[in-house]
Each structure stands twice: as C-alpha cells, then as structure tokens.
C-alpha cells in the first residue's frame, strides 16, 4: 500500500499530513505534480504541465489498496475502478456508490457555466478541513490493517 498525492493543487497542510502518516505507518508517499511546483518528497514524480498529465501518471501508479489524495472527481472515479481508495483534501472519501452523482453534478455545473452562469468557488480552507482530512486518512489506513 502507498499514498499517492495529486500535488498540483494540494494544500500544503494536506501534503504534510500525508507525509506524517506515511512515516507513522511506514507507507511510501508518492507526490505527482507538474514541473511548475516545488515539492520535496522522497518519491516525487515531475510531469509536464499538459492537461491531465499528472492525472494519467497517478492513474498509472495507482494499484489496488493504494490511497490516492485528489480533489479531481474524474480522477477519483478512475482510481476507484482500480480498487484503490480515494480521499479529497477536505476529508471526503470518494465511494463507488457516490461517484456517479458527483460526476453528474460536475457536468451540470460545467454546462451551467458554459451558458454564462456563475457558480460559487470553494470556501476558504480552515483547520477543520485539516482535521477532517487527517481523520479520514487515519480511518482508511486503519481499515486496511483489519483486512
């Protein structure tokens, strides 16, 4: 098992939590980001900044029982198809039974924006987001210990 972080848009605190939990549970932490980011990690993969380049690399790295951290719902859906776990930086675990709804919601919002509508952006990140993420990551890691 390894933790793979979509580090292109990952909050610094989330990356720090992943590195701490990786060390605590002796799990390698892989980070994937375009060359535009300066990330220090033992297993860091630099990709071109072309669209979806980081996502494709993450998908190629992911295996059954890995944990992928991303806020990209499309990538989450593909990761779930590989029987890996997937967690958003705000602590939401993507599940096979909710990913279809999320993808449909994403498409409806994109269609609305294309027609000139405006949607709200993400709320400002708080310490509660970090605590939820840390608890979610712990829950997933400990869940694998029971398997």
Structure, described:
This protein is an alpha/beta fold and 147 residues long. It has helices at 12-24, 53-61, 73-81, 96-114, 127-145, and strands spanning 3-6, 29-34, 43-47, 67-69, 85-87, 93-94. Helix 1 (12-24) runs parallel beside helix 5 (127-145) and helix 3 (73-81) packs antiparallel against helix 4 (96-114).
Whole-number radius of gyration?
15 Å
Physical arrangement of strands within the biggest beta sheet: 3-2-1-4-5-6
Tell me the total number of β-strands.
6
Helix content: 40-55%
Name its key features.
147 residues; alpha/beta; 6-stranded mixed beta sheet; globular
How are the SSEs ordered, and which strands pair?
Layout: E1 3-6, H1 12-24, E2 29-34, E3 43-47, H2 53-61, E4 67-69, H3 73-81, E5 85-87, E6 93-94, H4 96-114, H5 127-145
Parallel strand pairs: 1-2, 1-4, 2-3, 4-5
Antiparallel strand pairs: 5-6
Helix pairs in contact: 1-5, 3-4
In short:
A hairpin with a 5-residue loop joins strand 5 and strand 6.
């Amino acid at each position: 098992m390894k933790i793979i972080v979509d580090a292109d848009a990952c909050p610094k605190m989330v990356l720090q939590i992943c590195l701490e939990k990786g060390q605590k549970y002796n799990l390698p932490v892989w980070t994937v980001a375009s060359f535009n980011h300066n990330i220090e990690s033992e297993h860091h993969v630099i990709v071109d900044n072309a669209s979806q380049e980081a996502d494709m690399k993450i998908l190629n790295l992911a295996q059954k029982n890995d944990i992928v951290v991303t806020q990209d719902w499309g990538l989450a859906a593909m990761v779930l198809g590989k029987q890996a776990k997937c967690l958003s930086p705000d602590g939401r675990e993507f599940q096979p039974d909710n990913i279809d709804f999320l993808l449909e919601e994403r498409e409806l919002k994109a269609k609305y924006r294309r027609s000139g509508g405006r949607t709200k952006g993400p709320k400002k990140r708080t310490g509660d987001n970090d605590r939820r993420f840390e608890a979610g990551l712990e829950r997933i890691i400990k869940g694998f210990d029971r398997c």
